[in-house]
From TrEMBL:
Belongs to the YciI family. Residues 24-93 form the YCII-related domain. InterPro entries: Dimeric_a/b-barrel, YCII. It comes from the Bacteria. Pfam families: YCII (PF03795). This is YCII-related domain-containing protein. Coiled coil: none annotated.
Length: 93
């Protein structure tokens, strides 16, 4: 992964996630995740998010100031915390 600090501050990072398990708490976790990113969006941290059609993959574009902020966003994603999704790629731009 290219470190976000290799880019101008602030900058955007496109995060790609893939489903890794269909745990019992799967649906609740994904519902919590939507709320998490909606809150970040209202704070100006999420530019756009969505799903890839017909796939268990989705993306989020976040606006961050540094690597620590990016890691905080990723580590607090409910689906990451519950091992429902994994981050498969982060593309700073």
């Amino acid at each position: 992964m290219i470190h976000a600090s290799a880019y101008k501050d602030p900058h955007h990072v496109m995060l790609f996630f893939e489903e890794i398990t269909n745990a019992a708490n799967h649906q609740q976790c994904l519902t919590d995740r939507v709320g998490y990113y909606e809150e970040l969006k209202s704070n100006g941290k999420v530019v756009i998010s969505g799903n890839f059609w017909n796939q268990d993959k989705n993306f989020v574009i976040v606006s961050v100031s540094n690597d620590d902020e990016l890691l905080h966003i990723i580590e607090n994603d409910p689906a990451i915390k519950q091992n429902v999704l994994e981050l498969v790629k982060a593309m700073p731009f």
